[in-house]
Specification:
Strand order of the largest sheet: 3-2-1-4-5-6
Strand content: 15-25%
Distance between the termini: 22 Å
Order of helices and strands: EHEHEHEHEHE
Shape: globular
Low-confidence stretches: none
Radius of gyration: 16 Å
Number of strands: 6
């Protein structure tokens, strides 16, 4: 991908590895200043240190912690003047609890929904404020094919990712007319 992102500021959640790191790297490679965020600061900083282009920083953001999210967004705006792009990539799934719904533990349900769906809501809510103030922003939510076509033994993940798909559509309707475009990607299985 080659686009001119010079002068743009991007925040990518779950950017310490996998899809998030790949997205953050491409944004940096195309000239954006990229904030690689992860729950673990050391992991975020390590990924940012390898970013192409040299305009990257690591930041600890737990997408389930509304206060930390608010403080982080505020800090990015103070340091960089804006947030142009938010990639809601942070996500979890379960390998230990691949069971049918009547056996699925409530604590695991809550964990998956808090990261995979509520985290998208909290991050988007916080980033929307500075974007709307400038009438410009791009939010991309990472869902999953499981949010479009559910798979067996993944009830919480399927519910969360289907929620992300519909949340994206609702956000697009609410924010698009005010300059903040919202889209969603639904990748397949990634190790």
């Amino acid at each position: 991908m080659k686009v001119n992102l010079q002068g743009r500021v991007a925040l990518v959640t779950g950017a310490a590895r996998g899809i998030g790191q790949a997205i953050a790297d491409v944004l940096a490679e195309n000239g954006a200043t990229v904030i690689y965020s992860d729950k673990e600061l050391a992991h975020a900083q390590a990924a940012a240190a390898m970013a192409p282009g040299g305009r990257a920083a690591g930041m600890a953001i737990d997408v389930t912690n509304e206060q930390q999210i608010g403080a982080s967004v505020e800090r990015i705006v103070q340091e960089h003047g804006k947030i142009d792009i938010l990639i809601n990539n942070a996500g979890v799934n379960t390998m230990e609890h691949r069971v049918t719904i009547e056996q699925f533990p409530r604590a695991e349900w809550d964990r998956l929904l808090s990261v995979d769906l509520t985290g998208v809501y909290l991050m988007s809510k916080a980033a929307a404020h500075p974007m709307l103030a400038r009438n410009f922003g791009r939010i991309v939510n990472i869902a999953s094919i499981v949010g479009l076509v559910p798979l067996r033994l993944q009830c919480a993940f399927a519910a969360a990712k289907a929620g992300v798909v519909n949340l994206t559509e609702a956000m697009a309707l609410e924010l698009g007319g005010r300059g903040v475009l919202v889209n969603c990607l639904a990748p397949g299985s990634i190790l």
